Structures are given as C-alpha cells and as structure tokens.
Amino acid sequence: MIAEPNTSPSQKENAVHDEPVPESTVQNGSCVRNSNLKTPREKRKVREQCENIRRNSSSSRRVSQLQNGEVVEAVTLFEVVSMGKQAMQSVVDDWVEAYKQDRNVALLDLINFFIQCSGCQGMVTAEMFQSLRKKDVMRKMTETFDEETGLQYKKFMAYPWILTVTWPVDMDNEDYPLIRTGPYWKKFKTNFCEFIAVLVQQCQCSILYDSYLMDTIISLLTGLADSMVRAFRHTSTLAAMKLLTAVVSVHLNLDVNKHNAQRLYEVEKKRISGKRTTYRLDQLERKRKEYEQKLLEVQNMMNAIFKGTFLNRYRDVIPEIRATCIEEIGSWIKTYPDAFLNDSYLKYIGWMLYDKQPEVRLKCLLGLQGIYSRKELVSRMDLFTSRFKDRIVSMPLDKDHEVAVQAMKLLMLMSQNCEDVLSAEDCEALYLFVYTTHRPLAVAAGEFLYKRLLSREGDEEVQPKGGGKFGASSDQLKRLIRFSLESELHKHVAYLIDSLWDWAGKFLKDWECMTTLLLRNGEEDGEALSDAHENVLIEIILATVREAAEGHPPVGRGATKKIVSLKEKKIQLEDCTKITEHFIVVLPRLLAKYSTDAQKVANLLQIPQYYDLDVYRTGHLEKHLDALLREVKDIVAKHSDLSVLEASSRTYYILCSEEIAIYSQVDRARTQLIDELMGQLNQLLDGFWQKEEGFCMDAGEISQMNSALTRVAAFHNAHDLTKWNLYDKTLRLLVFEMEHGSLPVLMILPALQCTYFSLLWQLAAVSENSPKETLFALRRQLRRFSQICTWFLHHKEKDVREKAFMILCDWLLILSHQDSNDNEEAVGLLYYLPSTSLQEKLLLFIQKHVFMEEEEESKDLTEEEERKDESCKLDDLHKKRSLLAAYCKLIVHNVVEMTAAAEIYKYYVKTYSDFGDIIKEMLSKTRHNNKIQSAKTLILCLQQLFQAHAESQDRSSDVDFSSASFTNIKELARRFSLTFGWDQVKCRESVAMIHKEGIEFAFQGAAGVDGKCLPPNLNFLLIISEFSNKLLKPDKRLVYTYLQRYIAEPLPCRGDDWQPLIFYRNSLLANEDEEGFVLGSPGESSSVGTSKTSSFKRKLSNGSLPETSQTEAASKAPDLRCATRLASVAGKSRKRLKSREVCLQEHLPFLCPGGLQRRYCKAEIKTEDVSKEGQAEDSIEDVDVDVVGADQDS
C-alpha cells in the first residue's frame, strides 16, 4: 500500500540548514593527506607513490585550454572534467590503471575529486579506520565550526577511511560549480554526470566487485549527503543518484547474462548423454553462479545508495536536490521496471506531486509521462493511478505554466493508454483549458480535446449518410459546434480555433465543407443547421480564415510576435490564395442568404480583408466582385446596426486600394452608394428644418434620421466625405440642440460623430500649399467644436455626456500632437491646449462619472433579472474604464497638467480592482516623462489626503493613528513606494524629492525650531517614512541632514507628540552602523557592537589580527570612542567626498541649499588632511556603501 506523505518530515530529513562552501583564492590541487602511518619511512613511501601515480596519470590525462591568452594544463580529475575532455573514457581508463597499481592513492584522488566538485578547496585528511577504536570514532563523526580559527570541520566515515574536511567559511559565499551559471558550468555538470556513468561502465568487468571501491565511494557520498553544507549535500546527492542509475544499468546487463547462461545450461543438459561433457556443464554452472553473486553484490549497492542517500534527500530543504532525486527515480522505473515499478517506489513520485516548488512537481510529471507512455507498464499502475489521479487532474491549474502544460500532456497519455481512467466530469473540466490565455497550455488542451472528442477512430472510413465527400469533416465540425455551444463560451471561438490549429488544421481549413453546410437546404436532405449552429459555424469560418491568413494567435494570447519561417510563410501565402479563390465565389451567396441577420452578416463581411485582391484580375473574376458589391450595398440599405455598417465601410476601404486593378470599379460603386446615403440624409434634414421650431418628431422619423446619420458616420470614419459638405449639416443640428435642447439622443450622438470625423478629414488634408485663409477658417471651426463638446459635458443625457467627453479627449490629444514636418506654420496656427477652466471641467467629469458610486436600491430580482443586472454593471464598468483611460492619456501626453493626476491617485487603493491597472500605467508613464514632477504629484496627493484627514479630526484631541482614514493614507503611501521597484539608483531622485517635499510640509506652520512648538503636520512624517527603504545609504544621510535643518539640538524627543519625528529619524538611520554619531547629536549616539565572530572575519579578510580585545576596546572613554568613530567615518577616501558632492550638486541639488551646505559640511571640510593610508584602508568598504551597498527592504 502507498501511505500518505508525512506532513512533518523527520529531523534528519528536513532539518538540514544551508551553509555555503567558499572558494579560497589559491586552489590546492593535492589536498589529501594520510595521517595514520606509523613510521616516517612509511609516510614518505606513500607520499612518493602518490606523487608518482599523480605524475604518471596526469601525463596521459593532460588537457590544454586557453585562459586569458595562456595555455592552462589540467592535472587533477576535477580540472580534466571541468575543462571537458572530449574522450571521457580515456580519463576513466587512466584512473582505473592507477587504481590497479595502488588503490589507496587512486581512491584518495577520487575522494579529492568529489570534494573539489563541491566547490571546497580546503584540506582533506584521511586516516585508516581501526576497529578497536570504532566507538570513539563514531562519537567523533561530527560537523562543527571553530570560532577561534574561523574554519569549518566535517569528520565522517568513508570506509575504510575516516575523512576530515577542513575549509575556511565565508557566510556570504553561496557559489559552487553545480549552481554556477553560464555554458561552461552547464557543461561541467554534464561532464560530471558522464564521468560517473563511464566510471561504473569501465569498472563493471573488474574492480567494481572488489568490495573496496564501491564501499568507499558509497560511504563517501552518503557522508557528504548528510552534511549541513548545501554544496556537499547537493553535489554528493547528484553523484549518488547518477551512480545508482549507472549501477541499475549494470544490474540489467548482469540479469540478461545470467538468463543467457541459464538457458545455455538447460540446452547443454538436454543434449544426448554421449555428446554431453561434464566440463561444459560445470563451466556454465560456475558462470551462472558468478552472475548470481555479482547480482547480489549489485543489489546490495543499490539498496545502500537508495537507503543511505535517496531516503534522506528526496525531501531535502533544497528544491534542486529534491528534483534530482525524483528525476532519477523516474529513470530507474523506466529502465528497470521489474525491480522499481511497484508502489514502494512510485509513492515517492506521488508524494512529491504536492511539493511547493514547481521544478520538483515538473520532474514528477516528466517521470510519469515516461511511464504512462508505455502500455505494457500502465497495467501495473492501477493503485498509483487511483490514488493520485485527482491530484494530476487538478495540476493543469498549477500557477507554474510549464507544470500545467506537462500535466495536461500526462493526462493525454493517461486517457490514451488507461481505459476509463478519466470520468466525463474530468474530461469536461479539461476541455475548457482550450480557452486559457497561456498558449502552450491551450495547445496541449487542444490536443486532448481533438483526440478525445473531435477525432474518433473510423471517421475516415465510415461515411455518414448523406455526407458525401465531406462526411468525416462534416461530422467533426458538428461535434466542434456542439462543444462550443455547450461550453457557453462561444464568444471566444478565436481562442478555441487557435488551440486546435496545431492538431486539427486539416479539417479546420476545409472551408468548402463549412460553406457547404451553411448553403445546404434543409428541405432537400433534412440536415440543415439551426440558427445557433449557423452563428457558431460562421464564427469558426472567420476565426480559421484569420488564423490561416495572419499566422499569429488572437489578441491576449502570446505576448511576443511569432517569427515566421520561410516554410510557414509559404504555407500562409498558399492558404491566403485558397481563401480568396473559394470565398470570392461563395461569399456573395452567403451574404444573400443571411442578408437580414446582422450578427451573421457582420462576421461574413470581415472575410474580404484577408483576400489576395490580385486574384480578381488574374482569375478574371470581376463578375463575382460585382455580385459582392451589390450584396454589400443591399446590406447597407437594410441595416442600421453599427457593427454591420462599420464592417461594410471597411470592406469598401479594403477593396478601394489605389494600387490594385479593381480600384476604379469599386470606387464607382462606393461613390454611387454614398450619393444615395447623402441624398436620403439631405431629404430628411430638409423636412426637419421645414417644420416649426419645437415640433416633436414621431418615433418613425427619429428612427429614419438616426439610421441615415449612423450610415453616413460609419462611412465617414473610413472614407473622406468632405466634398458632400457634411460638416455644416451636422453642426447646425448641434447648435440647434444647444439653443433649444429638444433633439433626441438618437440624433445627437451620430451628429457629434459626423462633425468630429469631418474636422479630422479637413485637418488631415492640411499641407504646405494650404492658404492662410483656409487655415484660419479651420482654426475657427476647431475652436468652435471644442466649445460645443465642452457644452455637451453638462447635457442632461448620460450617453451624450460620455460621448462628448470621449470625443473631446481624443480631439485635444490630436490638436496638441500634430506632425510639424510638413508645415510648421499650419501646426502653429492649429495648435491648441485646454485652458485651466476646461481642465477643471474634465477632472470634475471624471470624478463624478467614474469614481462616484451610484446608490443602488436593494430589490428582489429573479435569476434572469440578476443576470441582466450583472451584464449592465459589467458594461457600465467598461465605459468607466474607457473614460478614465482617455483622461489619463491627456495627462501622460502633457495635454493636461500632471498635478491633476494627484486627484486620480487618491482612488488608487480604493478602486484597485476596477481601475488599478490604468492608474498604475499612468504613474509609470508620467514617471518616465518627468521623474521630479511625478514625485511631486505623488507627495501632493498624500498632502491633500492628510489635510482632509486633519480637518476631519478634533484638533483638541490627539491624532488617532489607528483611524481608518490615516491607515488608508499610509497604505496608499506604501503602494506608491512599491511602484519604484528594486532599482534604487534609478529612482533615487524621485524618492529624495518625496522626502524633501514631505519634510517641508511636515514642518510647515511651525513657530520656530526651538523644539517648543509642535508643527501641525508633524504626523505626516509617518507617511513619508514608507519611502525610507527606497533611499540609498548616501541619500539617507543627505535626507537626515536636511531634516536636521528643521529640528533643534538636542532632539526634542520628550513626550508622545514627537514620536512621528523619532520614528521617521529611525527609518533614515536603519541599517546604519557607523553613521549614528556623525549624523546625530552627541547625546543621541549609541555604541554599535559587533560579535566576536564577525569582527574576526572582517579583520581576517583584511589580513590583520586585532591588537586589543573587544573588552579593552569597550573600556575606552566614551569621548575617545566617539572621536575614533568620527575620525573613521570622516577619513573616507576622496571618492566618498566626491560622491557626496555629486549627490549634493548634480543628483540631488534640492537637498543642499547654500546655507545648509556651509552649516553641515564642516566635518568633511575639517578632515581633508587625512593620511593616505587611512583613505586607502577605508576605500574598499566605502565602495560597497556608495556603489552597490544599498539595502533593499521588501
């Protein structure tokens, strides 16, 4: 049985703490010592043998490599493997020969290799194990750190050796070969694993079974794998797992040889007694027993490695180690299923499916894919499948994309090779992943959907009744249509088609079958599609045409643009030709059949934009073009739906390209259509103006006027209708509404749109040769239209107000960003920026229509009414987002002053779920345009909120820091701080400006700086303290110095009223160890102690030892200690003085006024006569502080 994984792992397995293994500056290539030899002669003999063997072996394994222009020769095993010798087998052969000559020396060389591969370049001391001292030795098997010497010791058993590894410890170094980046170290890992595999392979016929080599290696790796040091644990675990993988291969070979020997023995035994020889039988019997003995030894090796390393490390705290263990156990199961394919081993993979790290879960899924892909193994996975199936089914929802993709692929294999393992509910849940935005996961789900539901065995052979040549494709299409309808996500057909494109491209490109289904007459064969099925099929046709012609996924799926290969480009061109040739003939018939259905026609009219229009002329298909133009004209006359009219207008625009041969034919048809539309509109307008003022139009007349204006507006969007003088006609309607206010909304909205398009076409027609009279007239028209839109911002109808606002925002953006390359004089005349009053009106409109919540009446609604209500709320949210985005564009492009953004930022936290992405993008863009002004806008927002909070509080009582309003301000400041990211250097000017403006605001209104009068805005320091962690260390000193300008000395820290100042001061001095005395007053300084270990490490790294103890240093007089610390900081190199000067004068000049610089820079000026030795001694540490030593608090 498979037990549940233990949620509280054992201390031995999971309580391993990471300790890094450092690298010393000098590599000790021969660092193994034997310390248990009795006489000096024996020691000298072993040393000479070691040197001879190393010299002999190095001559054959010598590898050269260019490094910095010099030839470096590899001598040790580590150097040979790390440089990547081509023939790894020759390296192993050299070591095997050395082992046969003297196995102790060769083994010590191999031990040194594993230690060096762990990144440790310390010393390894070996002594022979003595059985009489076993108890004493086992007590000494430990891993300790000596604080006196700063060295780490690890003593462990590697039978028959007792190894002691010694190395210096640097707690900041976590670098070792296996985790180093770059192609060189990736190759090292590959070479390391290959070396172990080749070593076992070369030793399997000789020294592998000498009961010495493998015992030593397994003991060594087991001991290192139990280390507290991450590098030892990681390297030895990888080596042990690869060693077991190689041993498993040896076991397989032995098993095959044993069966062969047994078979030969049986054959020889059955031979005729006269021809049978006893010698031959005895020989085969000995061979069989020899194989059995070797199998037993190999089995013991496998058990030792599995129990000694895998069981302890498969739940290690390091995810890389866990992933290595799971990857290898999957390899063992696939390689040797007879031994490993059982629940005793499968349970580890099942348990690790719940691991918190995605790389571990990924290795589990990859291992299971190798097992489930083989049908002969699946039958032995019943218990595992039943136990962990639910977990695997849920893993496509994994937050890691690669894990989700591999989980879907695993489920595909399970559905193919396991009968009825997935229920109908499981499959339905998995099908819906075709709509996900992550394309690899959607494609994997598309394969699952296609092979499980759409493509069934026998589809090609069995033709449905009446299906004809499209039987198979027709059946698949109907199943796809039903799936789209049943999933209730048929509005996302483009995503569905993109998911299936790689697997079902053949039948998805069968447009002839699709159009045949649409044109089929139900009365003839009784198989006509329903209206819903026809809608989905037309959407499928449009999606497949778009996918084939464009060759990239739909919007929202796939962030990067796909690079199309030559082969794909060729296929794309062939598909485009195929689409054109087919739909040129069929599309007019489809439009004629569905001419009254707005939804179907709007989709069908989008197909011509993917045509290869040259086919009309080369294929002599002009008659089909005439048929298409007739149908489009008829559709425009029948429909007033905006989507249909825009699709028709775009069709004319696509067909009216001047560079193609059919331009004149389409242009005549377009002109004729527009003449008819304008004639209808003029007739309706003449009838309207002939009536008396105030006459109310009936519903029919309003509908006719709305249809005429909407048709003209849709075509005016893509076509220049200036010669029809539409501007004067629509402007008169708008002026009439301003004067009388009696026009219906259905007339106002298209009239606004037509007037806007008319001015845009006139603006686009301006050129160098335009006379000034024309420019001045156009200027008057532009100003007039801006005033009209401003007036409509206060219209009684909400739809009119929103339409006027959107047009006005786009209009202002266009007028303020015109291209001056053609005519600078014209641009100067037509340039327009909104006045202050207009900017205020725009801001008030946003506050009222976007951020002001409407009161809702609680009503008991039915389920249908609730659904409609939710749909209305969603549409209303989309409108609000569009309004806010239009206004934010004005701020980003400097049409509206950036300070207006402060009013928008106030709603950042409150409306984060609805508008947070828009506000955050505006903040990012404005910061990119002007860092300082953007920072001032942020602090202005916080100041306004703080003032409103202060006015709402009772001034006679203390400020309640736990109040909701104050907490919201602090949260908003924290969110603003997070937007600066991790690059403190990039945002240093902005953050410093926030602190400067905040300090000035906090002490604004103070009567003096004597500490007796409490500034009214002092609590604002608590808010700007949220930005302290974004300051660099040098900038913290500058901001603190600037703060000193406003406070008295000594610091007025008595009472709770001054606590905000103390809190803010502490946030500036956080993580400072030496600046406390220099920056603060003498009464505020406090001694900063350091531990004995850290002090020793710092002095040891500088190559010096302390001359006096810490106790003696602490016993010095306080004045002397302060003076020493002051001299130490003041004695920094000229680089720091220059750095501060640069900060004051170049980067942050606003933090250092002239008087302040003279007052607070005396310490630096007085300490210029510092010895060069002191400057050089301190410059090393100073570089870390000034350049890369900035703390980044999360």
Short structural description:
This protein is mainly alpha-helical and 1194 residues long.
Walk me through what this model shows.
The chain is mainly alpha-helical. Among the domains are: 77 residues; 119 residues, no CATH class; 97 residues; 204 residues. Helices cover 65% and strands 3% of the residues. It is built from 54 helices and 7 strands. The strands form 2 sheets. Strands 1-4-7-6-5 form a 5-stranded mixed sheet, sandwiched between helices. A two-stranded antiparallel ribbon has the order 2-3. Strand 2 and strand 3 form a beta hairpin. The longest helix has 41 residues. GO terms for molecular function: chromatin binding. It is found in: Nucleus; Chromosome; Chromosome, Centromere. It holds the Pfam family SCD. This is Cohesin subunit SA. Part of the cohesin complex which is composed of a heterodimer between a SMC1 protein (SMC1A or SMC1B) and SMC3, which are attached via their hinge domain, and RAD21 which link them at their heads, and one STAG protein.
